[in-house]
């Protein structure tokens, strides 16, 4: 997969493969598709000084694939595999095999289960649920063989998550993380901080940002999706005085 992008339409055929790990290389067969995105970004960065003439396109936002590429840094590449692993473990524990072959009812039931897991006090369980949701918005790449499949499932999952209230759940998680005095105190005691110290916050922001970018860029949705998108825009324009935050579309 050359770019991690969202296609507005459903592909004519959905060719998916098993999301199991490839025992020969110890990694997910679908993972290199997303890793290539980072390698290309790194190559572009390394050749930047070789291009004296730069062209800038000014606007409110870049193309969707560029926005998503810039969301992640190189050190986050291993977390794609962690997201997939967390999802597969939880999904299997609930008696399911593949997301792409599950029924709509099964998918909705599992998303509600994840939503409940986001509220548990156990940090490990909560983190696994967050990673699983992020894997869904990333398009369940471990089960998809083609770029079109991944594009389709990313869009479909984002709308499903929003419809079931997961965007609001993650906004609430964001506020809890911002008010986490224990984490702040622990960070202040460290002489040096690593990317691992902000993992939960980064994952939460990645989910929120991907959902916003995905729904913002889709303009030819069907009736139900248009209704959800309109509702989403209205929600982003609302102000919560109680939590002291502002969200703008």
TrEMBL record:
Entries under Pfam families matching the protein? N1221
GO BP terms: namely: cytoskeleton organization
Domain Far11/STRP N-terminal residue range list: 51-248
Example GO CC term: the record gives: cytosol
Q: Which domain of life is it from?
A: Eukaryota
**Which PANTHER family is this protein grouped with?**
AT25231P (PTHR13239:SF4), PROTEIN REQUIRED FOR HYPHAL ANASTOMOSIS HAM-2 (PTHR13239)
Could you tell me what this protein is called? Answer: Striatin-interacting protein 1,Striatin-interacting protein 2,Striatin-interacting proteins 2,Striatin-interacting protein 1 homolog
Q: Which organism is it from?
A: Acanthosepion pharaonis
């Amino acid at each position: 997969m050359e770019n991690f992008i969202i296609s507005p339409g459903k592909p004519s055929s959905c060719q998916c493969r098993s999301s199991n790990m490839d025992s020969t290389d110890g990694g997910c067969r679908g993972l290199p598709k997303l890793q290539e995105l980072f390698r290309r970004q790194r190559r572009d960065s390394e050749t930047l000084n070789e291009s004296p003439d730069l062209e800038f396109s000014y606007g409110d936002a870049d193309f969707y694939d560029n926005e998503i590429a810039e969301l992640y840094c190189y050190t986050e590449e291993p977390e794609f595999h962690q997201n997939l692993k967390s999802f597969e473990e939880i999904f299997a524990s609930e008696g399911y095999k593949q997301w792409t072959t599950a029924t709509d009812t099964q998918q909705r039931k599992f998303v509600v289960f994840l939503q409940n897991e986001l509220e548990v006090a156990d940090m490990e369980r909560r983190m696994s649920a967050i990673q699983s949701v992020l894997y869904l918005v990333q398009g369940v790449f471990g089960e998809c063989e083609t770029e079109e499949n991944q594009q389709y499932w990313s869009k479909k999952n984002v709308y499903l998550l929003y419809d079931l209230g997961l965007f609001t759940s993650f906004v609430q998680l964001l506020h809890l993380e911002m008010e986490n005095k224990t984490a702040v105190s622990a960070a202040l005691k460290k002489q040096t901080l690593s990317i691992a110290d902000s993992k939960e916050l980064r994952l939460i922001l990645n989910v929120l940002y991907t959902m916003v970018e995905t729904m913002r860029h889709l303009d030819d949705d069907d009736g139900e999706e248009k209704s959800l998108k309109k509702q989403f825009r209205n929600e982003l324009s609302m102000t919560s005085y109680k939590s002291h935050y502002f969200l703008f579309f």
